[in-house]
Design goal:
- It is globular, with a radius of gyration of 19 Å.
- A hairpin with a 2-residue loop joins strand 1 (38-40) and strand 2 (43-45).
- The protein has helices at residues 3-6, 17-21, 66-77, 109-121, 179-198, 213-218, 233-236, 238-250, 273-285, 312-322, 335-343, 354-358, 362-369, and strands spanning 38-40, 43-45, 49-51, 82-89, 125-131, 160-161, 175-176, 203-208, 257-262, 290-294, 325-329, 349-352.
- The strands form 3 sheets. Strands 3-12-11-10-9-8-5-4 form an 8-stranded parallel β-sheet.
- It is of the alpha/beta class.
- It binds flavin mononucleotide (FMN).
- The site of flavin mononucleotide has 24 residues, from helix 1, strand 4 and helix 12.
Length: 386
């Protein structure tokens, strides 16, 4: 596992402006802007800026700790509207690395709730990205070298996946899970959502992107099953829908549910934008409120034309054709860029990853640049330029 593969891409290559400029863009009436609130079921985001989920590889036995409190807390201080945890493992074997954050046991709830209390005290909505890494589990965290972790390196074997197909040459060959294994995954997600609720979280996002377990089921390149979880589109989307249904059994009506999808595998014969739109339509009917639209991560050799806002066109298409609230992510760095995405109706929410690591209080600067007078934390008022 490298940092690059973890951001949905295998590598951020050269900019392909032709691809970006050729992107079909539908303009909705200019109305909302980056600092307009957004209501999703019973919660309201104070603006359209969210923290994209980012692995911190800093947990012991899945527990959140002071690192997570300060790391996530700083974004709420900086006036992001939505603060969402990194990929949080619903089962221990679903961790990307041994140091991943987890929510597979009740003991994990207490510290997550503590983080939530602080985030909420700052006026932001707190949530979790629920995840299972499937065949991309058991890797060494990036700063310890990255790549697959064998058992001698602290990893684990028998990685569950739709089919016994390794992600890449040096990765472990996973085990094709049977119906008992599928039941374990579905129950894992349901129990995790119950714990997220116990931690007072107000949104959960199901991670079905970036080549992790649920995406592995979606893509015919990683799913060659011949049972009712493989083959046809209806069969490949079955596990994601099972997970959504299971979570909705315990996740209250008043709270929103999001799903992160990779809109394309960037590879011929892989999961594609048409399927993403169709799945989004179906998920809306299943009780999903927001699709967080990313791309890539399931094919090690895929060539990704990364550049500023390179995934916006996919969010715009899902929003337009599936008529569902969307979040856009990926190389969104400037306030005017983010504001334009929302104003032109290409996405309802912008999620920032690395730019918020560089500048955790980015929303305060964005407000200034966009001439919006937003409330600063009173403790920081004396630093506000007028
Ligand atoms: C350090 C780091 C960790 C990440 N971990 C996750 C993760 O846990 N879950 C996820 O869906 N995406 C993860 N990503 C991808 C980001 O959420 C985001 O989609 C990607 O970085 C592109 O947005 P950006 O250009 O604003 O950084 C990670 C990215 C970074 C940089």
């Amino acid at each position: 596992m490298t940092a690059a593969s973890d951001i949905g891409a295998q590598s951020y290559g050269e900019l392909d402006l032709t691809t970006m400029l050729a992107a079909p863009i539908a303009f909705a009436p200019m109305s909302n802007s980056l600092f307009e609130p957004l209501t999703l079921r019973g919660i309201t985001l104070r603006n359209r800026i969210g923290v994209s989920p980012m692995c911190m590889y800093s947990s012991d036995d899945g527990f959140a700790n002071d690192w997570h409190l300060v790391h996530l807390g700083q974004f709420a201080v900086g006036r992001a509207a939505l603060v969402i945890t990194e990929a949080t493992a619903v089962l221990p074997e679903g961790r990307i690395s041994p140091q991943d954050l987890g929510i597979w046991k009740d003991e994990h709830v207490e510290f997550l709730a503590r983080i939530g209390r602080f985030v909420k005290s700052q006026g932001a909505v707190f949530g979790s990205q629920l995840a299972h890494a499937g065949r991309k589990a058991s890797t060494i965290r990036p700063w310890d070298g990255g790549g697959p972790a064998t058992e001698t390196l602290g990893g684990w074997a028998n990685l569950p996946a739709p089919s016994a197909l390794a992600f890449a040459a040096q990765y472990q060959t996973p085990v094709a899970i049977d119906t008992v294994g599928i039941g374990r995954v579905v129950n894992g997600f349901r129990d995790a959502a119950r714990r997220a609720l116990a931690a007072d979280m107000e949104i959960v996002e199901i991670h079905a992107a970036h080549g992790y377990l649920l995406h592995q089921f979606l893509s015919p390149l990683s799913n060659t099953r011949i049972d009712n979880y493989g083959g046809s589109f209806e069969n490949r989307i079955r596990l994601v829908r099972d997970v959504v249904h299971a979570i909705r059994e315990v996740w209250p009506e008043r709270l929103p549910l999001a799903v992160r999808l990779s809109a394309t595998d960037w590879t011929e014969g892989g999961w594609n934008p048409e399927e993403t739109v169709e799945l989004s339509r179906i998920l809306k009917g299943d009780g999903v409120d927001l699709i967080d639209v990313s791309t890539g991560g399931n094919v090690a050799a895929a060539k990704i034309p990364a550049g500023p806002g390179y995934q916006v066109e996919f969010a715009a298409r899902v929003k337009r054709e599936a008529d569902i609230t969307t979040a856009s992510v990926g190389l969104i760095t400037s306030p005017h860029q983010a504001d334009t995405i929302v104003r032109t109706g290409q996405a309802d929410v912008t999620l920032l990853g690395r730019e918020l690591l560089r500048e955790p209080h980015w929303p305060l600067r964005a407000a200034r640049e966009l001439h919006r007078d937003i409330a600063w934390p009173p403790q920081y008022e004396r630093a506000k330029l007028r």
